[in-house]
Amino acid sequence: MNSAKKVMNQQKDNSEKKENVTVKAATGKKKLGVSSGRNVKAIVLSAICIVLVLVLCIGVGIQQLGPEVAFTVNGTKVTMDDMMYPIYEKESYYLPYDEMYQAYMGTSVWESSYQGSDSNVPSSVSNKIGIKQEILDNEEEYVVLYKEAVKAGYKLTSAEEKKAESQAKKAMKGLSWIQKFRLSMSKKKLTKRFEKTILADRYKSDRQKELNKKVDETSVIKKISKKDYREYDIQYYAVALSKTDSSGNTKKVSAKKKQEYKTEINKYAKKAAKAKDFTKLIGSKDKTDVKYDKAEFTEKAGWSYLSTANLKKVKAMKNGTVSPVFYDEKAGYYVFVKMIDNNSTSSYQKACDDAVKSAQTEKYTEWLNKLKESYKIKVNASVWNNVEIGSMTTEIVTAEDLQKMKESSSKKSSSKKSSSKSSSKKSTSKSSGSSKSSK
């Protein structure tokens, strides 16, 4: 009861004080002139400006005094300010695809399966978890390689210094000052970053060349089957016996429609026998579901447009010959083919190159992992665990912002091309004019 009374009394005293203040304020009012009104406006604007400057200064002060440390390499601190650019770089790459993923896959691009190339990341994890690990692995690698480069006496060339500056300008292009501020980006900081990564990349390239010599390419290539990778290059006309609606549901066409397709494709097959150009059997005014295309398939992989029995017939074709129409209900197509090359080595060569490159990458990864063991790398879990890819920079630079930046860049490049064309035309006309006068 006593405490309740105290609260009531305190409330009553406060209301009485407010009334007294109101009365005094009312009795003490004076008529304000025009100049007084202007002064008040100027004071308010000045106050707002001061507050904004203070907010920015406090923000900068906080960042300068203590940016959170993401990880350390032999005591060298890499802060979250340093990590903002690589995070932004990855998020701005994937963000434009998010809307498409939401519409067609029913999930965000961040929740879809990992799409990166980091060998340390299992493919079963989500994209946001995989990208997060990829960013951390890449940054750790750059710090270690930069330290090794400095230790080995590597120094930037003047061309590399200019390249770093150019990369910094490009990275900030299209960003507003407030976006740069929120991303902890500046020309000075980014130039310094790119100087380090350029030096690290040169050191990495030199080490990779040395490691490549240790890869036995002959033994790697021996494992690739020439028979399996024999390639068949074809041109073809086909019509699908099923259609997919906007919801992604596939439905077979009717028997009547199939008969129409048979008539249409037979018409083009007859034209193929006499045509000089196999690629132009369908006229510009023809309304048809039959489509022309070209394809390559290997002995091992096969071709989905034909069942095994019909594909065997195609593989037996001589170069330059045209097949009859295959009414392949099992594969789901009516199709006829022209054989361009029945023994191409392109797929085999690519498989060999890929195998050698994979062996070289494996050799480098082994070397890097061993090198990293000699360094004390410590991740600050209390900071890095709070990083959630897909939400770090996507509100600072939105998908709409990225689209505008892309459009602006394409407009500038097209205007540069048109201006260079017009200048070249002018110089041509001048030179032709001068040659005429000389005559």
From TrEMBL:
Biased composition of type Polar residues is found at 1-12
Q: Which UniProt keywords apply?
A: Membrane, Transmembrane, Transmembrane helix
Q: In which residue ranges is the amino acid composition biased (Basic and acidic residues)?
A: 401-410
Q: Region Disordered: list its residue ranges.
A: 1-22, 400-439
Keyword Iron annotated: no
Native organism is: Butyribacter intestini
Record has Zinc-finger as a keyword: no
**Name used for this protein in its record:** Peptidylprolyl isomerase
Transmembrane residue ranges: 40-62
Compositional bias of type Basic residues: which residue ranges? 413-428
Q: What are the Low complexity biased-composition ranges?
A: 429-439
Judging by the UniProt lineage, the source's domain of life is: Bacteria
